[in-house]
């Protein structure tokens, strides 16, 4: 009996010490500058969202939030670096659908698992994933689909790269709408959209931020978005669900994660600070002007988004045979 009492007393002491330690950790974090790795080049939509939030969060945390751009390999190089980093909250990853959800479907060898190698902090922004066509394209999206269906293999489409979200979204549309179009991958959004402007391709799925100036100048047209609901940035643009294709949803999102094992107190602190930044009117305005919608919310919500995305695209990747290695 004495041994049991000693054990219980010892356990209580340990739990009390752990509670004190976790509270102290939350109060003292961060103790040095935070590295925020971005897997795209400066000026991209992912980079813009990360920098906009970093400017605010560094003031709230009292430490610099240093943006480090690490483009390459579909975002997986930067993701792998963060997965290997110490789990102390001082190295974070500002990722998107690819490295945080679909990468395991596209790489035969990947040094990390998006669902096991990271602690989700929050989803930051989403933006419309739009179907853009040449400026001289006439009619509605339904009429365009009918014309493509009547000319199997005679029309082509660009993507921002093989196995990219742009590629997979069009393959999803082809499956649901029974289309046959030829895929031409390009090295990024600017190259793909310029091919559309020049008449080298007939269509492209891309983020709104890649084509917004071209749409405003009348150099290309938008037919529909692959989102669950209409975007406030494009209130007149229908979704594919409205045109009778409810399965054609391919939202583009960004989010922030930390290495697996990062203490929950740090994750909670970061979640609170990034959510607070997203709630500021000036931050929301800047993001919305760039065609992005703030998301925010708890880490659990972002974890569900990541898991759902991976499950959704598995059959499309298998059907197309798309690979990145």
Summed up:
The protein is an alpha/beta fold and 325 residues long.
Model regions low in confidence, pLDDT < 50 over at least 5 residues: 17-22
Number of helices: 11
CATH level-3 fold name of the largest domain: D-Maltodextrin-Binding Protein, domain 2
Largest sheet: 6 strands, mixed
What sort of overall outline do the alpha carbons produce when their principal axes are compared? elongated
| Spatial gap, N to C terminus | 62 Å
Q: Based on the coordinates given, report the CATH architecture of the largest domain.
A: 3-Layer(aba) Sandwich
Number of strands: 11
CATH superfamily caption of the largest domain = Bordetella uptake gene, domain 1
* Average predicted confidence as pLDDT: 90
H-E order: HEHEHEHEEHEHEHEHEEHHEH
User: Which CATH class of the largest domain?
Assistant: Alpha Beta
Give a description of the structure.
With 325 residues, the chain is α/β, with parallel strands linked by helices. The protein folds into 2 domains: 35-125 and 251-320, Bordetella uptake gene, domain 1 (D-Maltodextrin-Binding Protein, domain 2); 129-226, Periplasmic binding protein-like II (D-Maltodextrin-Binding Protein, domain 2), CATH 3.40.190. It has helices spanning 2-28, 45-61, 76-84, 97-106, 141-149, 165-177, 189-197, 208-216, 264-279, 281-289, 299-320; strands at residues 34-38, 65-69, 91-96, 118-127, 129-134, 156-159, 182-185, 203-207, 220-225, 252-259, 293-294. A 6-stranded mixed beta sheet has the order 2-1-3-10-4-11, sandwiched between helices. The chain is elongated and about 85 Å long. Residues 17-22 have low confidence and may be disordered.
């Amino acid at each position: 009996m004495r041994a049991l009492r000693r054990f219980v007393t010892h356990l209580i002491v340990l739990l009390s010490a752990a509670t004190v330690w976790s509270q102290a950790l939350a109060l003292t974090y961060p103790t040095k500058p935070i590295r925020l790795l971005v897997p795209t080049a400066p000026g991209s939509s992912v980079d813009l969202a990360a920098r906009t939030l970093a400017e605010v969060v560094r003031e709230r945390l009292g430490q610099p939030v240093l943006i480090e751009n690490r483009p390459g390999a579909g975002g997986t190089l930067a993701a792998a670096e963060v997965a290997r980093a110490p789990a102390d909250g001082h190295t974070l990853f500002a990722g998107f659908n690819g490295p945080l959800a679909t990468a395991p479907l596209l790489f035969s060898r990947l040094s990390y698992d998006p669902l096991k190698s990271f602690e989700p902090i929050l989803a930051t922004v989403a933006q419309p994933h739009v179907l853009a066509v040449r400026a001289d394209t006439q009619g509605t999206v339904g009429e365009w689909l009918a014309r493509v269906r009547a000319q199997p293999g005679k029309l082509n489409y660009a993507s921002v790269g093989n196995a990219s979200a742009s590629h997979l979204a069009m393959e999803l549309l082809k499956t649901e709408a029974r289309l046959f179009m030829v895929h031409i991958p390009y090295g990024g959004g600017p190259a793909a959209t310029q091919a559309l402007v020049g008449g080298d391709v007939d269509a492209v799925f891309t983020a709104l931020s890649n084509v917004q100036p071209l749409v405003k100048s009348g150099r290309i047209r938008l037919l529909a978005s692959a989102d669950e609901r209409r975007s406030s940035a494009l209130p007149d643009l229908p979704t594919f669900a409205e045109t009778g294709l409810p399965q054609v949803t391919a939202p583009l999102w960004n989010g922030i994660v930390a290495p697996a094992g990062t203490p929950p107190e740090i994750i909670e602190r970061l979640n609170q600070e990034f959510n607070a930044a997203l709630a500021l009117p000036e931050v929301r305005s800047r993001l919305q002007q760039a065609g992005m919608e703030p998301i925010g919310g708890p880490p659990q919500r972002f974890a569900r988004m990541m898991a759902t995305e991976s499950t959704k695209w598995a059959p499309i990747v298998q059907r197309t045979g798309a690979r990145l290695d």
